[in-house]
Amino acid sequence: ANRFPNHRTARTPRPEYSEYYTDKYSQLLQKEKTPEILYWDFTKNVSETVKLQIKNLLTYILKTIKDREKSLNNYLLPLKYLLQYAEESGLQDLLKMELSQEEEYTAFLKASMGKSCGSQRRFITFCREILFMGNKEIDWSANVRYVDKLNIDPSRQSQGNNIKSFNFCDVINIENRATLQKYIKYLLTLTSLNIGTVKIFCCHAKAFLRYLEEQSMVISDINQETVNQYFSTLLLEEISPQSYNNKIRAVTDFLVYLQRVQIMDSFPIHVDLFGKKVYSVVKRYPSLEEQLEYFSEYIYDFPKTLCVMSCILLYTGIDKENYFS
Questions:
Q1: Is the distance from CB of 109 to CB of 97 less than 8 angstroms?
Q2: Quick one: how far is CA 226 from the chain centroid?
Q3: Mean pLDDT by 10-residue block, N- to C-terminus, for the chain (325 residues)?
Q4: Where are the alpha helices (DSSP H) in 39-162?
Q5: How many Cβ atoms sit within 10 Å of the Cβ of residue 151?
Q6: What is d(CA 315, CA 312) in angstroms, rounded to the nearest whole number?
């Protein structure tokens, strides 16, 4: 973060208005009196993609965030420092920020703004979502995909547990990440799987890819020995047999896809050799007679009114099975 100038100590003369922004931005920015916000230098040596993204975010913020103080500290200043960071770091696309770039930018932003800075991570998430949702076409190469943009049938979402996004940033190797992104696109667009199931498959595939990265391997290096070793490592995890079987099944489906699209060599995957035996749990419910006997034993501990009502219901012809349902 030290290689970026601090706005509190590094002041530059205000350039002429016409060099910095068009009339569209000037009309929106005239309400702002803070010098750091009033002038935006889009002539800097910054990727044209990033310039356009910054302009789109700037327009969105000025039009939708009405709270001036919140807008300044949580959005406008962080956005201006993002433009500065992009110039210094060579960032080419905000939708493809790497984890290392996120960490570098958040450190720079915190050092520049101090306590007045809002949540840096939340601001990055805000930028990603606005840009991804605002694109005319779905950017399938984005490091974070937002489900609302994907036009997926609402019936594929789980009630009470809607999946908002798919994040691929934690897959560091570019080749591995690109392949996982294609696989998740396949699951989202060419299958009818529940979105929650797709999320679970994605998480298990990520875990497998992290294992490959620890072994300094990429997807094209996978062979039968690699798969057997990974399944053997899962045996050491303290998880239920059902959870273990779900993991190896999800990874197997991912591997079958890789073989089908010829990203890795074909070889038999012996899932049955690694699966654990799952025993169904039989829950015993007491018979009606046992329930009545137990109930009669404790009925006199009930409040008097409830005790009388229960006795009347039980001994005057009520369907006793319904009483205990």
A1: no
A2: 28
A3: 44 37 49 60 91 94 81 87 94 96 93 79 94 95 96 85 91 95 96 94 96 94 93 88 90 95 89 68 59 66 72 62 54
A4: 48-64, 68-71, 77-89, 99-113, 120-134
A5: 9
A6: 5
